[in-house]
Amino acid sequence: MVPCDGVVLAGGASRRMGQSKAELLTGSGQTLLDRAVSVLQRAIAGTVWISRPYSYSAVSARDLVDDRPSAGPLVGIAQALQASQYALVAVLAVDLPLVPDSLFTQMYERWSTHCGLAVVYPQSGSISQPLAALWHRRALPTIEEALKNDRPWPVQKVVSRLSSEHIEVPLDILTNINTPHDWTRFRDAGVAP
């Protein structure tokens, strides 16, 4: 198990989906949120938090509620890095249903050989995914700078300003569910977990 805490990013508004992506049911009857939590619980040694949207009210001990509306996933990453007892946090967006728990071990092995890194993330060709990644506490100053703006920087811009490396993965691991069409195509392909 990777010695870190983790956070499932489930704070998005799911505007393009038209309903909460976190509550979509997989082929096994598990929600995407429950699946992501399970992946991290199998992968890491520490606590798994859930980053919730700004308006979320049913708060439990494992919830990190966005402290401002429409700030994006950087808020959840920052809150997890601030709350963690570890220097590393495993991040997994709820809408990445094919990310295996073994990916975090692979990324940790890369980080262990390059300890100065702030982010290790998966990539397939030119497609990268920093929302299924290991983030180090040294990324916090850059994240905080990004969040000072009225329109926070995109996650990719933050990563580009940090010491980072990627590991190559098969493209299907990076499957992202954003729209009803994405979800239907994913379910019809018979690959829904």
TrEMBL record:
SUPFAM superfamilies given in the database record: Nucleotide-diphospho-sugar transferases
UniProt-annotated location(s): Cytoplasm
Primary subcellular site in the record, as a coarse category: cytoplasm
Record carries keyword Methyltransferase: no
Domain MobA-like NTP transferase, residue spans: 6-153
EC number in record: 2.7.7.77
Gene Ontology molecular-function annotations: GTP binding; metal ion binding; molybdenum cofactor guanylyltransferase activity
Role according to the record: Transfers a GMP moiety from GTP to Mo-molybdopterin (Mo-MPT) cofactor (Moco or molybdenum cofactor) to form Mo-molybdopterin guanine dinucleotide (Mo-MGD) cofactor.
Descriptive protein name: Probable molybdenum cofactor guanylyltransferase
Species whose genome carries this gene: Sulfobacillus acidophilus
Annotated gene: mobA
